[in-house]
Amino acid sequence: MSGAGTPTYPVGTIAKLLMLTDRRVQQLTAEGVIPKAERGRYELAPAVQGYIRFLQERVAGNASQVGDIGYHREKARKIKFEADIAEIEAAKRRGDAIDAAEVKRAWQLILGEVRANLLNNTPARIAALVIGRDEAEIKRIVREEIGLAMKAASEADVEDLLRGENEPGDADQGRA
Predict the structure, then answer these.
(1) Coil, helix or strand for 140?
(2) What three-state secondary structure class fits 170?
(3) 148 contact partners, CB below 8 Å, separation of at least 6
(4) Do 35 and 47 meet the contact criterion of CB atoms below 8 Å apart?
(5) How far apart (Å, rounded) are the C-alpha atoms in residues 98 and 108?
(6) What pLDDT was estimated at residue 20?
(7) Pairing of strands 41-43, 8-10
(8) What is the DSSP letter of 38?
(9) Residue 8 contacts residue 1 (beta carbons within 8 Å)
(10) What DSSP designation does 172 have?
(11) DSSP per residue over 52-93, as a string?
(12) Which residue has the higher pLDDT, 73 or 24?
């Protein structure tokens, strides 16, 4: 017992109560977390209160660290995003990347070219070529004409189409 009449307990009892090892209780005593009443003995209330205070401070410290980690993670994410944007802009300036809207417009123009050739020019040429031919010859002519229309579309200058210099179907109108 301590001099004031308050009961004291051995390290093993305090360790069991706090669900720690004897060695950990001794470490926390050396760190000033758990006060010692006398050699190898501890008052119950101060020991429990010291350990609870220690745990509360640890939780509070982790909460601020978690906030710091979240801040740093978000800041790193922002920096990466800005670097990605700068990289995309640099690729556009070099001509290694183009805007999705430009790609969409180019595809629409290319498909317009194919459509114009297949629906406008090709049928007129086929009609003129198949008069009096047998079925096998008509199929060969149709395949050949579709191939020519597809070739003309594949050779169309997309940049000219984007600038509006050629209308869809212009590349195929020389044949008839």
Answers:
(1) helix
(2) helix
(3) 122, 172, 175
(4) yes
(5) 15
(6) 94
(7) antiparallel
(8) B
(9) yes
(10) G
(11) HHHHHHHHHHHHHHHHHHHHHHHHHHHHHHHHHHHHHHHHHH
(12) 24
Amino acid making up residue 37:
A
Q: What DSSP string runs through 20-33?
A: --HHHHHHHHHTTS
Q: CA distances (Å), 2 to each of 31, 37, 43, in order?
A: 22, 7, 8
Decide if pLDDT at 42 tops 50.
yes
Tens-place pLDDT, residues 72-123: 788 889 999 999 999 999 998 898 888 888 888 888 888 887 887 778 777 8
Quick check: helix, strand or coil at residue 2?
coil
Helix H or strand E segment including 43: strand 41-43
Q: Which residue matches tokens 């790193």?
A: 76
- Backbone φ and ψ of 167, nearest 5°: -90, 150
Q: Using a cut of 0.90, tell me whether the model's pTM lies above it.
A: no
Collapsing DSSP to helix, strand or coil, 1 comes out as coil
